[in-house]
Amino acid sequence: MANPAFSIVIPVHNEADYMPGALAELFAELSTVPASIEVLIAENGSTDGSAAVAQALIPNHPGLSVISLPTPDYGAAMRDGFEATDGDWAVNFDIDYFSGDFLNVVLDLGDSADIVLASKRAPGADDRRSMFRRFATWTFNKLLRYGLGSRVSDTHGMKAIRRQVIADIAPQCSSTHDLFDTELVVRAERAGYRIVEVPAIVEEKRETRSSLVTRVPRTLRGVIAIRRNL
């Protein structure tokens, strides 16, 4: 039986300078994965020519394509990217956080999972980020557990989701920005889909570009909205 196909979606905002090197590294890793793979750059609201840079890189990387959204919105870019692809598995990577080994783990799991999460808090994980960012992840996990009743340890980061889950659950999700994937996972968990968490190695390749000061209030409001809508 042939291995399933992966559709990798990478939301991108103002990454014109970073993309060429990152995509070269990504495609080198993907060459070790025995599966059919497409990569979709979901550019959203960039002002630095990211969309044009991504388009220009297509001849260098077979399987690469690009869509553009008019406004900066990570979650909406992920959602639209998932809906624009048709692989057996929809995969979320970031331009600075990806792993060919993670896809090999998904292949090894075979038919035993509907969603595979690379968790920074699963047993065996190696989170090499700052203590402050590890504390933020711990705090968010408590919000998931006590605010939404979820038993997963991490909804942010690399993940692979079967196409049927996307078709069934994504239309129910109203969250965008930081919490589309969280709502998707929590709704799938409540619907009885099989979720497997595997330990992640997390080492920041560059200084973080998102401010926790601005994200925390938005996340709190978003979690409250998800709880209200479930």
Q: Helicity range of the residues?
A: 40-55%
The average pLDDT is 92
Q: Helical stretch count?
A: 8
Number of strands: 9
What does the main sheet amount to?
7 strands, mixed
Rounded to the nearest angstrom, the radius of gyration is 17 Å
Strand proportion, as a percent range, falls in 15-25%
For the record, the CATH class is Alpha Beta
Low-confidence stretches: none
Write the CATH fold name.
Spore Coat Polysaccharide Biosynthesis Protein SpsA, Chain A
The termini sit apart by 38 Å
What is the element layout, followed by pairings?
Blueprint: E1 6-12, H1 19-30, E2 37-44, H2 50-57, E3 64-69, H3 74-84, E4 89-92, H4 100-109, E5 115-119, E6 126-127, H5 131-147, E7 159-162, H6 163-169, H7 180-190, E8 195-199, E9 201-202, H8 212-229
Parallel strand pairs: 1-2, 1-4, 2-3, 5-8, 6-9
Antiparallel strand pairs: 4-7, 5-7
Short description:
It contains 8 helices and 9 strands.
Explain what the structure shows.
It is a single chain. This protein is 41% helix and 19% strand. The protein has a single domain (6-229), classed as Spore Coat Polysaccharide Biosynthesis Protein SpsA, Chain A. Helix 5 (131-147) runs parallel beside helix 8. Strand 1 (6-12), helix 1 (19-30) and strand 2 form a beta-alpha-beta unit. The longest helix is centred in the last third of the chain and has 18 residues, at 212-229. The chain is built from eight helices and nine strands. The chain has 230 residues and is α/β, with parallel strands linked by helices. The radius of gyration is 17 Å and the shape is globular.
